[in-house]
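Thanks for the sequence, V.! I ran Olfactory receptor right away. Repeating your input here for the record:
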Amino acid sequence: MSAVNDTKFTPAVFLLTGISGQEDIHLWISVPFCLMYIISIVGNSVILFIIKTDPSLDEPMYIFLSMLAISDLGLSISTIPTMLGIFLFNFREISFNACFAQLFFIHSLQCIESSVLLLMAFDRFIAICNPLRYASIFTLPRIAKMGLVCVLRGVAVMLPLTILLKQFRYCQANVLSHSYCLHQEVMKMACADITVNNIFGLFTKLVTMGLDLLLIFLSYVMILKTVIASYAEFVRALSTCVSHLCAVLIFYISGIGLSVVQRFGNSSSPLVQILMGYVCLLVPPMMNPIVYSLRSKHLRARIIRAFKK
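Predicted structure:
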């Protein structure tokens, strides 16, 4: 009897959803999604290739940019199978283990990307406010350790949440409202008290992405205090930092907005939450290579030269 009850209360799979009510045009919706994935994967791969093969780009700023490109590639690859499976083939089922693995990678990579954006802000702060110490602070061994800390931080934050999710029984409707698995959604499917997971999840979001955003903001306040006296220095600092600022705004506004709406926006339209989810996962990986390619003259020149060859 216990085995029967376990199978009754623990479904074997989760069912994913595309855009509810728009199933008839899912094939057409897949076209812009495919284009966004292509731009994201090709753009980030090109940036990685150029930085890897061009010795003149062996600088801390471009090493951090390559870290950002790797995290964006990982984020895109984590969502491609299920998202295109829904829109192209109407394949909705995902096993428990695959779902937990997907949400672990999605949230871990978002945390890693947030850490990398903080490192890039610190890089700009030292380059502008304390340029004489820049070379001594950002040595290659130290940059490698910083990258390792970013990865370990993402894993350490998300692994306990994933383990907690796996301990629950899922006796409610197992239909998710997105075409991929997110912690907040899977958590609501549990037939147990999810208070600890809910509070711990929000806490980790605040002390990772929230704290990172605050430190990035403070770094730019310090940069402005340094260059505000000179108009020429202000313009130079702005031109140096504008691409990073764009990446920060795109990433944090979409990520924090989605987290808040999912937890507290019960009265908001489900379509709004669904669209915010797609924006959060598709737009930053697509826009980052575009923004950095357009704003960085040095990188843009190298990309143009590589394609001319």
